[in-house]
Amino acid sequence: MSRIRTKMAAPALSRRSVLAVLSLMLNAAVLCNGGTTSSFVRKVEKAVDMPLDSDVFLEPPGYNAPQQVHITQGDLVGKAVIVSWVTMDEPGPDTVHYWKENSKHKKKAKATVTTYKYYTYASGYIHHCTIKHLEFNTKYYYEVGAGSLARTFWFTTPPEVGPDVPYTFGLIGDLGQSYDSNKTLTHYELNPAKGDAVLFLGDLSYADNYPNHDNVRWDTWGRFVERSVAYQPWIWTTGNHEIDFAPEIGETKPFKPFTHRYRVPYKASNSTAPFWYSIKRASAYIIVLSSYSAYGKYTPQFKWLEEEFPKVNRSETPWLIVLLHSPWYNSYNYHYMEGETMRVMFEPWFVKYKVDAVFAGHVHAYERSERVSNIAYNIVNGICSPVSDQSAPVYITIGDGGNLEGLATNMTEPQPKYSAFREASFGHATLAIKNRTHAYYSWHRNQDGYAVKADSLWFFNRFWHPVDDSTTAHS
Ligand SMILES: *[C@@H]1O[C@H](CO)[C@@H](O)[C@H](O)[C@H]1NC(C)=O
Ligand SMILES: *[C@@H]1O[C@H](CO)[C@@H](O)[C@H](O)[C@H]1NC(C)=O
Ligand SMILES: *[C@@H]1O[C@H](CO)[C@@H](O)[C@H](O)[C@H]1NC(C)=O
Ligand SMILES: *[C@@H]1O[C@H](CO)[C@@H](O)[C@H](O)[C@H]1NC(C)=O
Ligand SMILES: *[C@@H]1O[C@H](CO)[C@@H](O)[C@H](O)[C@H]1NC(C)=O
Ligand SMILES: [Fe+2]
């Protein structure tokens, strides 16, 4: 064929090319029943980290003042909060004072203090304190440090776990500390949807992109995000940038800086490691998984998840949400199929237990799937294409927080059928649960005003209202 073509006269060739293009277009019309690849074209530019002297990295004034204050849920149901902070010069006071809004009665809780070394870096004094027996749906103030250096923050506990409790989650992944990261966080803070807590999808500081994983960039990241995470819990998922595996300096156990700095309530869900755990919050049951811990059959994570799914009571928590870092359904040419092995192990459970949504990061772009599953395959039957499945979750990749590695722009073509919407822009999302049947989801790209929704839809709960909520057919 090709030899014949090369011998053809020019006019014949061009007519032939036109025909070829036409037939490709016809093919595309027949084959391309995938979703939407956004026509929004972002100016491609490198994401640049904010310099060390940026306003967002400023240390609080005063000798040994508490910094990098952050909170997360501290138990299974939201009646406890873990408060963490760092002091740079000496351990300093280990007490958190806290009180209900409009109450003069201050209570106290004690923190533990830890430090660690990594390459030539020596950490400050990292404090973790679990405040327990809080009341639901209540605003609390808390104070760390003492005397003139005391710093006061506040948080509101979630409503009591129950089926029709409205609650709004923010969704941020792969944030890093570039100018774009700052824009993502600012847009989340200003979003009129007003997130009550952040589901963070892994890859926090990107310190490991610096020489010797310069852990000073963990400190700057802690100061950067304090303006949000000191006031509302961020629920942590671990990503590959938390692994920090460095056998050349004897660091053969992964996750050292992360586990020293960030605590999660994994024991409350009978997990044996902080990388996989679950919490209930308002009307949601949130399962956090680790793409970077063993998940093969018989491993601790596998056995934990096997016992975890049957515990979910949809009459108590209608919304079943899973967080993990490496996406299972991803049609970008980045990290392609990295999530596949975990999908093979766990996807049948996700369909059986009707998970509503799976949020992932890792790929620095945005993508939303239709409800699909791919669980019919076994070695001999060869059935290996995703199929529409109303018992399956929607898979959302939102690794577009803005880190210095930049955007993933190269997509597989044509867009696969299961992919409902994809766009290579930085941004964040919110999931506003209204009641047991309805939740409103929206993704916001950074180039627009923070109130503009670039992708949004109603999720219908898979247990209480399993009505088709796909969007491709209507778009
Ligand atoms: C980060 O964003 C905040 C809030 O918009 C702004 O005040 C600050 O100047 C920004 N800092 C940098 C370095 O972009
Ligand atoms: C954890 O295990 C203990 C002991 O088996 C059990 O009593 C408890 O209910 C379990 N907690 C959860 C959240 O599964
Ligand atoms: C599930 O939750 C509902 C509502 O809280 C409760 O009445 C019911 O007993 C629970 N079911 C089980 C099996 O625990
Ligand atoms: C996009 O990714 C594909 C597959 O990895 C590769 O062959 C192609 O060269 C990439 N295109 C660009 C423009 O980088
Ligand atoms: C649940 O919320 C949706 C969206 O706000 C609303 O249309 C629906 O009527 C609500 N259902 C109930 C039972 O209140
Ligand atoms: Fe990642």
UniProtKB/TrEMBL annotation:
Keyword Hydrolase: yes
Gene3D superfamilies named among the record's database cross-references: 3.60.21.10, Purple acid phosphatase-like, N-terminal
Domain Calcineurin-like phosphoesterase span(s) in chain numbering: 168-366
Catalysed reaction, written as an equation: a phosphate monoester + H2O = an alcohol + phosphate
Top EC category: hydrolase
Domain Purple acid phosphatase N-terminal intervals: 66-157
Keywords: Glycoprotein, Hydrolase, Iron, Metal-binding, Signal, Zinc
EC number in record: 3.1.3.2
One protein family per Pfam: Metallophos_C
Co-factor(s): Cu(2+); Fe cation; Zn(2+); Mn(2+)
Signal peptide: 1-34
One Gene Ontology molecular-function label: metal ion binding
Residues annotated as domain Purple acid phosphatase C-terminal: 392-451
Family (UniProt): Belongs to the metallophosphoesterase superfamily. Purple acid phosphatase family.
PANTHER family: ACID PHOSPHATASE RELATED, PURPLE ACID PHOSPHATASE 10
Protein name: Purple acid phosphatase
